[in-house]
Specification:
The structure is a homodimer. By secondary structure, chain A is an alpha/beta fold. Chain A has eleven helices and 15 strands. Chain A has helices at 14-24, 46-50, 64-71, 84-96, 116-128, 146-151, 174-179, 186-195, 203-214, 298-315, 336-340; strands at residues 5-10, 29-35, 60-61, 75-78, 100-103, 132-135, 157-168, 220-229, 234-236, 239-241, 246-257, 260-270, 277-285, 288-293, 321-323. In chain A, helix 1 crosses helix 10 (298-315) and helix 4 (84-96) packs parallel to helix 5. Chain A is globular. The relative contact order of chain A is 0.15. The interface between A and B is large, with 53 and 52 residues.
């Protein structure tokens, strides 16, 4: 039995706080630090921010370097932005302080193609210290990339892969509803698409990760974002959507191989979605189809993944450096930890 | 780019031959040996046995040791019996000759609990030489163990797991139909269940592998086998089944944790199954359900898995020794091979 793994939580927003609640309740872990850029959180006990009763004895600070230096954290749980260009600097500081990094940053899930320089820098810093840095989550990370990659192992030949995820935004955070365009006019939607602030980040990373698993060289990878308009009046919490206003977004990434669109990832995030689900379809020999009624819950399952992967990141045998969800044994046999997994 | 991986095929029955066809068609591999206990196969070219056109230049032999010695095989593909007690001896010989072993032996998929001595011996021999031995397949190996283990990572809390696999035997080999009892009388069925010759091997191993992934200590694990009777006349190839005769088997493994049946794996293999499918249901927070219409084809997907995992077994970073489907990164990022994966 290892002594409790010491975690530092960098970013305690909605998902970060949910991770804190899970980690705080698990004796395998000990929370030793918490950092958030929000000045309203600084100086308060982490329990208060995370909605837990009783103090955790961990004060949230805005000073990452001091927290790294003073906490002795073995793993940093990073849950802040989606864009690697903005997040790389703090991630590098965590690695240089000798911590592993487990992050929900979407672009970190498979950064090699779009951010090769940052990927190499993160990889180099992590390797130099025998540490790992991993971007994880349900999407990207599990549903549209790891799972189809694994299911494709059951195919002698893969002709095409199509993954579809339909999320009912009515059941999700207002912040997410807003980010997917709910309540906007068509003109506002177009403007936000143009400015790059609307929609889900990570669909392209999923496509790149999946294509790499399949050994496919894509000659084109294009992303389309179209508004889904409300067919009727919709109420979702404080939101009131009139018919013809935007109720959500349909986002499609298509990968072309040898001139043919063989890879398609479709994400529909909309208020009042009639049949939320995840669906994976692999055309091939044999064909493989998987349907997840209701879909795998984005926030809750992402928080669960982060918690479960903390010991894996620190102890599982395998490569160090910048890794993806495909590079580690995610559920290694119990007992192997102690045999072989010296914390790296 | 590694030079082609040299494979030796031990057992070229239905699945073994299908693997040969896949491996022979893939330039990443070079078949250097073939062994089968069937004297009718000895002395013939492997292509003939596997139903391929043109000779492969590999003569099937019954002499495993000579084949190991002369072939220089790096990986042995083992596809013979389901029972580890019978298969362990040849597997050990392969390991001692310095080869990795990739096997469809069902009891090898998770042998630690039921065959601890053999498991330890295989592990020791493999580790001593830096080799790996892995039992793989669709079931056990993927559908009822690895996949639910991975999906459970999306759950903050797992209350119960139920996996159901319904296979339409009408679409499968006569040998398999017969092994599942199709065509027997009720009395014959009971006699074969008692003698241990009827039914699927590996359901218990799947349950053990899954329970280990969940961190569940089971206080009981019981297996039940009940006949499924033909409701009407059924024709399947040469088989004629009268109403009331056995059309297949329903096999259920139930794992009890803290006095409650929290783990249930159900396998129905029957002629004219009305809705073949695989279904994984995880009760928990959040719940996760997956439904595979048609189910993942047993033989075809097992052959595919074996082929895909050959390079993984030989080159992927991670532990050596006796490993399970949970211990290796099954779809490691391309490019990492060359960086880190020296053939072990």
């Amino acid at each position: 039995m290892n002594s409790p793994l010491r975690t530092l939580h960098l970013g305690v927003g909605a998902i970060g706080a949910e991770v804190v609640r899970l980690v705080a309740a698990d004796p395998r872990f000990r929370i030793v630090g918490a950092v958030d850029v929000d000045p309203a959180k600084a100086g308060r006990d982490l329990a208060e921010i995370a909605g837990l009763e009783g103090p955790l004895g961990v004060t949230v600070t805005a000073d990452l370097d001091a927290a790294l230096r003073e906490s002795g954290a073995q793993v940093v749980v990073h849950s802040a932005g989606s864009r690697l260009e903005r997040e790389a600097a703090p991630l590098l500081r965590c690695l240089r302080a000798g911590a592993h990094v487990l992050s929900t940053c979407e672009e970190l899930s498979f950064p090699w193609a779009r951010h090769p320089d940052l990927a190499q820098e993160l990889d180099r810093e992590a390797r130099a210290r025998g540490r790992r840095v991993l971007g994880t989550g349900v999407n990207p990370g599990l549903v549209m990339d790891l799972l189809p990659s694994l299911l494709a192992l059951a195919c002698q030949r893969v002709d095409a892969v199509r993954v579809r995820r339909v999320v009912d935004l009515s059941q999700r955070r207002p912040q997410l509803q807003r980010k997917m365009g709910a309540g906007l006019s068509l003109a506002e939607f177009e403007a936000e698409v143009t400015s790059g602030s609307l929609g889900h980040v990570g669909l392209v990373e999923s496509a790149l990760m999946l294509a790499d698993a399949l050994g496919w060289e894509m000659d084109e990878l294009k992303e389309e974002m179209t508004p889904v308009l409300a067919p009727r009046h919709i109420r979702a919490g404080p939101l009131r959507i009139a018919p013809g206003q935007v109720a959500g977004v349909r986002q499609v990434v298509t990968g072309t191989v040898g001139g043919r669109p063989l890879l398609e990832l479709e994400l529909v995030m909309v208020l009042d979605a009639s049949e939320p689900h995840d669906a994976i379809e692999i055309q091939g020999v044999p064909p493989v189809r998987a349907y997840f009624p209701g879909g795998i819950h984005g926030d809750r399952a992402t928080a669960a993944l982060v918690k479960h992967l903390l010991p894996t990141l620190a102890y599982a045998p395998g490569p160090v450096g910048l890794v993806t969800m495909r590079d580690l044994p995610l559920t290694p046999r119990r007992g192997r930890d102690e045999e072989e997994g010296t914390p790296r």
